[in-house]
């Protein structure tokens, strides 16, 4: 098969040629956009799921939908070592520019408030070079969004931005990737601001994406967050959607997969969107002709697995220290043991008990806390509930067992 015409696109956050299996989320979001723009109450949105299920791709698709409706949008990726002020200010600066408000004075006022919000991070006595601003030329508005209390400041900031959007009958969407990495104070402030904006009926929504424990992070910050956001779990694709993700791009290039090939592809990928693209790319390059068969998939599978082992699994495994790797391998061994013996409970995300991991390693649970906490911070594992942990990456346990 001609590699130049290969339609598959494995990449972090890279939109696949066919965004299969997400029609329901896209349709629901169109309704949200229309309702918010008309001043009707609607909750902000949180997408959760493992790595490789396409959360970032869907987040970008939702943002594109907002842009098509004439909304102002901005996006940033949360980082554990960075506060909310600067990246949010950049995102809102872009959103205000996209709104296209016809009057200069109200726009300049809001831009000045954004600058004030951003510069407050540096402190009131900061030197000029430390007074960062996201390319905003107007002076900061003193006394607005600059109290130093991020919760107060964020409410004032989004109130002003929302008022600007309401003037032109549009809305503002703030899109946050890796939302679980926001600091506790920033999470609390964001929840409070969303609550206030929702009560005010202003056309501003937050769309966040993060790992499966993100709802727990939000709930720990504000008890009402369970009612504040609409939570949507983004999971692997059904067989029908996975087939469409492979067949539709192939058809554009006058090629196809036969039924046995589609069956083998689903078995190999588990329906995870990133794996579908990774396997699809390799199978296309190695298949001699169309239609692609199960034999072609069998030949290509080892090469696809090698590429995933280096780029998807290996890059994460290398971030772990030797002690952390032992912990990860013990998690994988506990899951296998539970499956083989039938003892314990295996849920749909493969959670294992921290106490069982300690037994597997022959150590006291307390002595393993540093390794577990470090892995949580690195985003390699997460805790869905107290005493349980799981991998953030699908098929990671299988990869670890293959390492010996």
UniProtKB/TrEMBL annotation:
Residues passing through the membrane, by range: none
Cytochrome c domain residues: 166-317
UniProt KW Manganese keyword: no
Organism in which the protein naturally occurs: Nocardioides eburneus
Region (Disordered): 1-21
Record's keyword terms, sorted: Heme, Iron, Metal-binding
Keyword Zinc-finger: no
Protein name, UniProt field: AAA family ATPase
